[in-house]
Specification:
Order of helices and strands: HEEEEE
Strand content: 5-15%
Helix content: 25-40%
Shape: elongated
Number of helices: 1
Structural class: alpha+beta
Largest sheet: 5 strands, antiparallel
Strand order of the largest sheet: 1-2-3-4-5
Radius of gyration: 20 Å
Distance between the termini: 52 Å
């Protein structure tokens, strides 16, 4: 009986060590997936602008319908953390206005783990932002 209790105690200690690491790894993978989604959206926006003489779509929720009848996106990506849809702001919000006049930004639903470093961002920020001309960053 004592041996069984010792084995259970060892398993509990190992679980206490491993579970937080698995949760952090999951949060990192969700943030990386969100960054990848925003890069793909930016690529679609740039392809659209090339075909429309440098004009980007109007602000709105990023869906295939945002691009009109053009096939730049076949599916509507969602933020892996919050499940929210991405949002295009054109022209870019004040957060990104260091870029060109026709700049835009793509934002997610936020809610990322504060312990995960977002690309080119500040530790503790919870939202991934893609600013045209500047790339990925973060905001609180």
């Amino acid at each position: 009986m004592i041996e069984l209790m010792i084995v259970i105690a060892i398993i509990a200690v190992l679980a206490a060590i491993l579970i937080p690491n698995f949760l952090h790894a999951r949060a990192e993978s969700q943030t990386t997936a969100c960054e990848g989604n925003e890069k793909q959206i930016a690529t679609s926006l740039e392809e659209y602008a090339v075909d429309t003489g440098g004009i980007y779509p109007a602000s709105g929720v990023v869906t295939p319908a945002l691009f009109g009848a053009n096939p730049y996106m076949n599916t509507t990506p969602t933020d892996p953390v919050s499940g929210a849809q991405y949002h295009l702001t054109n022209p870019a919000a004040a957060f990104c206005n260091s870029t060109a006049a026709n700049s835009y930004d793509v934002t997610d639903g936020g809610q990322h783990d504060k312990t995960v470093q977002i690309a080119n961002g500040t530790l503790g920020d919870t939202s991934v932002v893609y600013c045209s001309g500047a790339g990925l960053t973060s905001q609180p």
